[in-house]
């Protein structure tokens, strides 16, 4: 009997699909890793990288630290927001300083003769503008009624402040020489009424009442020594403070209840 001829094996032309599928899997893993690297969330990158390493049998161990990332893209959103807020605040402070400087120049121009005589001093700080006027320009000794000569000077200041919108604090100050008469039992009353007289004149010249406050300090805030005539003369003054809308923030320190025991 003749031997049966074996059947010929047909070549499998679809074996390439296995290699192609492996290639696609590796490409997918590659692009997933690249996406994870580009993400700003480093924690998610590490979790994903470790998961892929475990899935592939730790064939490709993930690095302990991710590749270098663009510092600008890695900044958290809260940090960016804080930086933007800081820049906006600094710009606002700069604009406010320019506004106050303009007001200070107008006041200097209005009081130029008294500034030249050393009877008025104008300074500017982060709190605002301080216009220090010697009391001898405004009042008779021991009196709180504005003299006629001071009306013109204060009216010029009021004209500048009228077109402005900053808050105004007028402070009265005296020397330490005691006063006691029917009108003023002490320097407290004298300083407070003098500040009120200036506020009233500003009000009469168009400055809004709601912007102003009058404060009397008596002799408690001297700017010179009370041991000399010149020092006492300088201490007798009225300070007109134009307050900044954006003063520098004050740091608050919490007080513990235990500290009060």
Explain how this protein is built.
This protein is an alpha+beta fold. The chain is 48% helix and 12% strand. It contains nine helices and five strands. It has helices at residues 16-38, 42-55, 71-74, 77-110, 112-116, 135-138, 148-162, 187-204, 229-235, and strands at residues 120-125, 128-134, 168-173, 212-216, 237-243. It has a five-stranded mixed β-sheet with strand order 1-2-5-3-4. The chain is rod-shaped. The relative contact order is 0.10. The model has no long low-confidence stretch (mean pLDDT 83).
Derived from helix and strand composition plus strand pairing, the structural class reads alpha+beta
| Number of E-state strands | 5
Strand content: 5-15%
What value does the average pLDDT take? 83
The share of residues in helices is 40-55%
Cα Rg: 39 Å
- Anisotropy-based shape: rod-shaped
Low-confidence stretches: none
Q: Spell out the helices and strands N to C.
A: HHHHHEEHHEHEHE
How many helices? 9
Question: CA-to-CA gap between the ends?
Answer: 120 Å
Spatial order of the strands in the main sheet?
Answer: 1-2-5-3-4
Features:
single chain, 261 residues, alpha+beta, five-stranded mixed sheet, rod-shaped
Write a short abstract of this structure.
With 261 residues, this protein is of the alpha+beta class. The protein is built from nine helices and five strands. Helix content is 48%, strand content 12%.
Helix-strand layout with pairing:
Layout: H1 16-38, H2 42-55, H3 71-74, H4 77-110, H5 112-116, E1 120-125, E2 128-134, H6 135-138, H7 148-162, E3 168-173, H8 187-204, E4 212-216, H9 229-235, E5 237-243
Parallel strand pairs: 3-4
Antiparallel strand pairs: 1-2, 2-5, 3-5
